[in-house]
Each structure stands twice: as C-alpha cells, then as structure tokens.
Amino acid sequence: PLVYEDDHLIAVNKPAGVAVHGGSGVSFGVIEQLRRARPQAKFLELVHRLDKETSGVLLLAKKRSALTALQDQFRARDTGKTYLALVAGTWPKNLKVIDQPLLKTLDAAGERHVRVASPANEDARRSITVIRRIEPHGEFTLLEIGLKTGRTHQIRVHLAHAGHPIVGDPKYGDFALNKRVAKELRFGRMFLHAAGLAFDHPATGERITLAAPLPADCATLLAST
Which single residue of 23, 65, 105, 124 has CA 20 to 30 Å from 42? Predict the structure, then answer.
C-alpha cells in the first residue's frame, strides 16, 4: 500500500514477512516487486531498510539526487522514526532510555546475530533507544519507541536484553510465549511496526511526516488484551 508518492520518492506500508530486497534465500522483495510493477521507472532504490519481520513505513527514491540527500539525512540522524512494539510483561515506567552498545556476530551457520556487549569492546557500537510511551495491555505492554541510533536489530535486542522481548520475535523473543500467542491469540508474527517517519523533502526542504496505520492483525491483538 502506498503511503506517499511524488516525482522524487515513494513511501509504502510494508507488510510483515516481506523482505525489502531479494537475497539470502529470498527470490524477490519490495524493491523487485516495485521495479516489476513499474517497468518504465528509470530509477528506483531503497533509501533505508526494515527487517523482514517488521511492518511499516519504507522509503524509496525515484531519483539519484533524492537517494543521496535522504541517505545523508538518515546518516546524520535528521530523520524522525517512530515504532510501535508489543512486549512481554509489564514495562518499568522509569525505564525511558536504553543506552547499551551492540555487537554484530555470525553464528556457525553464517546467520547474523546481534547482542549487547561490554563498552570496552572496541567492535561494539553505541546504541540508544528511547521509550516515548508506555501503555499496559494485560500481560503485555505497548511501547512507542524512538531511535537515536539505527543499528541492526537494535530495538529487538535492547528490549529483549531489558527482559521484555517483542511478542512474536523469532530470533530474540520468548519462544514459549510466541508459541502460546500464536495458538491462543492467533497471532503469528513479530509485533514491531514502523509507524512514522519524518524527514526533509530532498527537493523542497519541506518537513514531511508520514504515518502507516497499525496492521489489522496487530490492532486485533491489542483489542483482545
């Protein structure tokens, strides 16, 4: 579903379970689908990425000038990102900032894995996650999250390390809980949604704020908890 489009960029509401691009056993992703649907498009590139399991606002550039300008903003952290995550347990109200370094590793199968590391580890990168809103939902808590840094799997690892993994997270989550939620509540995906994105338009400089509504399955789960 399109969230926004003009001569310079496209924003889509990416469904969960769809990769942003092909590779690693995935024959095609969002970028390949859009290119196939728009054979007349001379230029179409991803500005940033979302995990396959994450839904929400995904930005693509229709011009190289737009791509470089937007990527510069992402690198400089001039963009505003808002995520919604449903986590296990009751989130402590006084925990508003997680400032813990993250380290990327590869397991024996060559799969990427991220963990919280010691600040003394020179390969670890400082990572800051901000909790903006806390909303209890029975045995779960809905969090509105902002990012000061954009590391791989940052939100997922930080929340799991705090003892409150994201519901349905297949890599860093509580697997017994995920199985129970899938069976009893019929929710079989990760509850992490890129709900909002703000940036300066690459051509006009106007501040653009985009929002992607919560997917129906996430809204249904919240209503039942």
Answer: 23
> What is the model's pLDDT at position 132?
93
Phi, psi of 72 (to 5 degrees): -60, -40
Q: Tens digits of per-residue pLDDT, 161-218?
A: 999 999 999 999 999 999 999 999 999 999 999 999 999 999 999 999 999 999 999 9
DSSP symbol at 95: -
Sign of CA dihedral 106, 123, 82, 135: positive
Q: CB pairs under 8 A, 24+ apart, for 21-25? A: 21/46, 21/49
Give SS3 for 70.
helix
- In this prediction, residues 33-51 reach a mean pLDDT of 90
- Neighbouring-strand partners of residue 117: none
Instruction: Tell me which residues are annotated as active site.
Output: 51
| pTM, 2 dp | 0.92
Token representation of residue 140:
């779960």
210 in Cβ contact with 13 (< 8 Å)? no
